[in-house]
Structure formats: C-alpha cells, structure tokens
C-alpha cells in the first residue's frame, strides 16, 4: 500500500469546511481513513495543527480541548506519527543554517525530512513551491497539492 505524508497545510483545510481547499484535503484524508493508503504526519505537524487551530480567527473559535479531541479522533487513528532522532533534527537545522535559510523554512525542512524517512510515494501540501524549493531533486516530483 502506497504511503502518503500530510503537511499541516492539508490537515487544517480537511477540518475546516469553509476553507477553499476543504474538499480536496478531506478526500485525501478519507483515502487514508478507508485504508486505501498509509498516512503519515510528523510529531511537529501535530503541534503545528494545534497551534493553527487554536490561534486562527475561526468563527466560532476552536477551544484547545476541541483541537485535542480532533487530534485524538481524526488524525491519530489514521496517520502514523513520524519522529526524528535528535541527530536527524540537528542535521536538518545544520542544513538550513549552511544553506542560509531563515525563519519558518526550517519547519518545512523538518516535514520533508520526516517524509523522506517514511519513504512516502506522495507528500501532500498546499505549499508546493515552498517545499520544492527545499527538497532534494529526487523528492520534487513527489511533492503535490491534494
């Protein structure tokens, strides 16, 4: 069964019905829930998901306990959690520093390292251009919007 990696930029729209990317994001998440694909997310991605949903100006706003319920009931039962070792995390940080990458690019680089670790067929993100700008050449064609 082919594996897929989910960036936070896909999981948030999958949950938010009013989001313009809701239908395509939800369709990819349903494929995983129906066991047609193996899904993966980084531990960092779970933290990002929590951060976005608890701070974005949604109407009504998400309460932290509601976001945790979504993580427990919608994400964790269907997506395998991927973690980096301390050395892998330092390697990504070192690569960002030596490449001169600043700011939030490190978060995308961490996602890519986790996706590489899972050997996923597809890396789903709505930040395709950003992810491809950081990816190794052999990964670029696997980075797609859902």
- CATH level 4 superfamily: 5'-nuclease
Question: How many helices in DSSP terms?
Answer: 7
- Main sheet: strand order: 3-2-1-4-5
Label the overall shape: globular
CATH topology: Rossmann fold
Number of structural units classed as domains: 1
Q: Specify the structural class.
A: alpha/beta
Q: Short summary of the structure?
A:
Helix content is 55%, strand content 12%. By secondary structure, the chain is α/β, with parallel strands linked by helices. Strands 3-2-1-4-5 form a 5-stranded parallel beta sheet, sandwiched between helices.
Overview of the molecule:
- By secondary structure, this protein is of the alpha/beta class.
- It has one domain: 3-Layer(aba) Sandwich (Rossmann fold).
- The chain is 55% helix and 12% strand.
- The protein has helices at 8-15, 22-33, 43-55, 64-75, 86-99, 105-118, 128-134, and strands at residues 3-6, 38-42, 79-82, 122-124, 143-144.
- The protein has a five-stranded parallel beta sheet with strand order 3-2-1-4-5, sandwiched between helices.
- The two termini are 18 Å apart.
- The mean pLDDT is 94.
Give a topology summary.
Elements: E1 3-6, H1 8-15, H2 22-33, E2 38-42, H3 43-55, H4 64-75, E3 79-82, H5 86-99, H6 105-118, E4 122-124, H7 128-134, E5 143-144
Parallel strand pairs: 1-2, 1-4, 2-3, 4-5
Helix pairs in contact: 1-2, 1-3, 3-4, 5-6
């Amino acid at each position: 069964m082919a594996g897929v990696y989910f960036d936070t930029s896909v999981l948030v729209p999958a949950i938010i019905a009013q989001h313009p990317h809701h239908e395509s994001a939800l369709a990819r998440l349903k494929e995983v829930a129906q066991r047609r694909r193996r899904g993966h997310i980084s531990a960092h991605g779970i933290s990002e998901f929590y951060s976005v949903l608890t701070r974005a100006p949604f109407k009504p706003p998400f309460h932290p306990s509601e976001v945790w319920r979504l993580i427990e009931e919608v994400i964790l039962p269907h997506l395998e959690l991927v973690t980096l070792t301390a050395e892998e995390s330092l390697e990504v940080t070192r690569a960002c520093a030596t490449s001169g990458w600043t700011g939030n690019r490190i978060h995308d680089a961490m996602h890519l390292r986790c996706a590489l670790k899972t050997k996923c067929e597809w890396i789903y993100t709505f930040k395709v251009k950003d992810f491809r700008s950081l990816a190794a050449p052999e990964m670029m064609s696997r980075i797609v919007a859902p």
